[in-house]
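User: Before I run my own analysis I want an independent prediction to cross-check against. Here's the chain; please return only the structure tokens and, at the end, one sentence I can use as a sanity check.
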Amino acid sequence: MPYFPRHRDGRLAEMAATSHPVRHDDHGRRRAPRRCEAGRPLRHAALGAALAALLGGVVLAGPGPAVPVAGAAASSGAPASLCPLKTLAHHKGTVNIDFWESMVTANGKTLATLTDKFNSSQSKVHVTLVQQPSYTTTWTKYQAGLSNGQLPDVVQLTSTDLQAITDSRSALPVQACMKATHYGTADFLPRVLDAFKVGGVQVGMPFAVSTPVLFYNKLSFQAAGISSPPATLGQLVADAKALKAHGTGMSLKLDPWHLETWLATANQYFVNNGNGRTGRATKAVFSGAAARKIWTDLDEIVRSGDAVTNLATGPTGFDNLVAIGAGQSGMTIDTPAVLGTVTALLATGKFPNVQLGVAPFPVFSTKVKGGIEPGGSALYISNRVPKVQQAAAWQYITFLDSTTSQATWAAGTGYIPIRTSSTETATVQKLWQTQPGYKVAYEQLLHGLRSNATAGAAIGPYPQVRQAELTTEESMFQQGVSPTKAVATAASKIDRVLARYNQRIGGS
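Assistant: Structure tokens:
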């Protein structure tokens, strides 16, 4: 995520109430974590440590220009006059700005390289990276800053924080600066831009964008007689069964992002009012046949033992990938943002029984035209800092989203190059020729339907919404709750979460 509020690609508010993977017996009851033959927990030290290092609530309206809430018109929400570009042009000396970000390991090194390049390319703006250990930490610290005044000039937040930062009225919509500079966006993937709009206004500048993809061990697939990775949810269920029969099975990360993505592939809304894009979300609307089918299929592979589960956050957050490295799982779904680190680990030769394959996210059905919703994060400019620093921040984030920078970013991390011109560079072309798995997530966003459903949902209390999703999904596996009842319960819980949030901020 991305994205549990992660990057995920991303990545989230801590939801884990347990420090162990959620695993179950044939009757859906919780059981102890599975262990390998040597008696050690399901974890390979090198892979687990590297992945754990990789990815690791709302204060409301205050002073500053109002950021549009859902449903506001783009023309009135972000006029060019809001972007104080002239202040930088007239400033004497260097403007120092802070950037709160959450990129570590390979991703952090790539961001540091790009920032060093920006700082050395000119003398007008100098950027200091302030690294947070996770997206959750960044958002928590940002919320505190809304009260104590300790805010960054630029902040990197996940797609799930979009509505909340909009509601905080603390962000200068980047659309204002786009207008002021006649900044062209025709080169951007349209659905990437859509993901960070509220009410038609570009609030955040997309940067580290991802989509969930399927990781699989080609050797496990060969052993099970599976000729190609699953293209649909139904095929995923069948392949999990075949893999299990030949000694592996599937690792299923319990990430609500996946349910939402499956709904998007069926062009189904998660919440009302255009998925929160045309008006504030007030009600969950996913409790129909599609959601019931999704959770029924997942319930089948977990309760049959064809899949083992782990939480998306906390110390078990990467057990699904660790299991592939340890030869105990044949496939899983995760963010391509791990590719830079995973590729480097595989190159060490310590995992000879893994030939990693990357395939598109298995869609709900090929009979329905939808799309993969973007995840990951965007960059936001604070409107609570001096205007000259806002102008400096715009200069920096446009550098990060330039053709060359996005090519470097994609090659170093696994995130999607969000500009078509970046994919035409020698950097990305060479990457895709030698590592075709890096191209998968990009192609998922290049194709597919463009709609509010495929843009993903805009929800203010997203962490609480995903908490409701997660606990209800777990109730199927741990308590034997039927998928039909679980879906209905999740929707009911989310309705209450939305009502409390909207009442608190005065929305409707």
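Sanity check: The first strand starts at residue 23 and ends at 24.
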